[in-house]
Amino acid sequence: MFHDILSLLESEFGLKNNHLLILEALQHKEKTAVSLVEDTGIPLGRIYGFLNDLEYQRLIHKTSSHPAFYSFHHKKKMIHEFITSKFNHLLDIGAKINSQLEDIEKEESTTVINNSNEFVLSSYSMLHQEHSIKILVRSSSAIPDFYPFDENGLVTIRGAIEETRNKIGKQTFTSGNITTQLFLKFQNYIKQGRKVEYIVTKEGADLFFSIIKKKFGAAKAKERALQIISQLKKYPNSVIYMTTDFVPYNVYLSKTKAQIYLTSGEGFIVGFTSNSRGVVEFYDKLYESIKKRVTPIHPYLRKKLKEFSR
Fold this sequence. Notes:
- This protein is of the alpha+beta class.
- The chain has two domains: 2-81, Arc Repressor Mutant, subunit A (Orthogonal Bundle), CATH 1.10.10.10; 109-309, Endonuclease Chain A (Endonuclease, Chain A, 2-Layer Sandwich).
- It is built from 13 helices and ten strands.
- The chain has helices at 2-13, 17-25, 33-40, 44-56, 75-107, 116-129, 151-163, 165-168, 177-191, 202-216, 218-234, 277-291, 297-309, and strands at residues 61-62, 70-71, 110-113, 132-137, 195-201, 238-243, 250-253, 258-263, 269-274, 295-296.
- An eight-stranded mixed beta sheet has the order 3-9-8-7-4-5-6-10, with helices on both faces. Strands 1-2 form a two-stranded antiparallel ribbon.
- A hairpin with a 4-residue loop joins strand 7 and strand 8 (258-263).
- Helix 3 (33-40) crosses helix 4 (44-56).
- The longest helix is centred in the first third of the chain and has 33 residues, at 75-107.
- The N and C termini lie far apart (101 Å).
- The relative contact order is 0.11.
């Protein structure tokens, strides 16, 4: 029966065979290390390590005499204390793991974006915290670089975009002064030398320039194209690519956060923001897969210059 108990201690609690040999040798009589070497066959140079293990785990008692004697007299009490200690240790570990899991859940959060204001606040937070952002957009009306880097010019172009919102539907962005402030924030972010990389659809860029041409004329549209080229040259940390792929939604990406949103025909925004590693990695892979098929924006802008010069 006692041997079966020791076998369970070995299989379930990590005791080694040499530990069991020592416990069996101490069943009925206390002994010195030298005596235990003779009884167990464990070399003297190794037996002290096993004895220290058993003493630390409260399975044996060691006297303070010289030479020291080791005993296992109160087997039931010592085994019970050993098992209780192991159980409490596992409870402590379990509590720590659960606490860490709760921290992970708090850290890896997903927040729903219900309206334009929440979108702007979330974007402000990303701009404040991050030093590099990648943006995938359906419409170039959502790219701050497509607007003048001054508030009056920005508001003028934004006004033209907003006037056409009801006719354009899904190709437009949110409206209002809060959006203007967000665009200015983005432009300041770029002026500070932080890196912004965009992928915009050709369809979205065509729509943007068609609005400018219709509202202000070909000369103004040409001027806007020239200013975009000038701004990109002045701020090389801002890079724009163009894709002909279908882009179903807009994505803002940093190393630690992903923000995904859709706009309705009235400019109403819905989406979510997440700092879950899995979510960020998924949308980053999507971005990079589209990037493999993009072209720089400059050839497109030069083509527009020729078109508006006719």
